[in-house]
Amino acid sequence: VIGNIGTAPLNYVGPENHPDLWVMTALGQPRFGGWTLFELFDAEGELVTNGRKSSFCMVNSMPIAPDPPPTTLNGCDGIDVGYADVYGSGLQCQFLDVTGVLPGAYTLRITTNFMQQIPELDYTNNSADIPVLIP
Questions:
Q1: Model pTM greater than 0.70?
Q2: Under the phi-then-psi rule, with left for phi > 0, alpha for psi from -120 to 50, and beta for the rest, what region is 56?
């Protein structure tokens, strides 16, 4: 879940509006490449592997504020203040390849806007750590 707890809508969709943030895939589809970073750390805190989630559509999937203001963005236009976009495990183009990673306890760190390309009031709240056990 990536929420907008700022003071303005996140409206960075479309390469025509912000060509510096978007890259074209081999299939000619625009992707915002700096959206989410996945990092897997071992028990000693050493980085084992990493992966990324590119974005092509940011939406108001759910409210996160008790009384969010009315939405101003529609479809893939972005994320309004008080709303969040949900990235479930079944969503395409987000993965972490653990081929060859030894069984054990790890920490998965997920960081959004990891390149800090989108202006924010606070970049320190963009990560979450999750314990992971690889059997």
A1: yes
A2: alpha
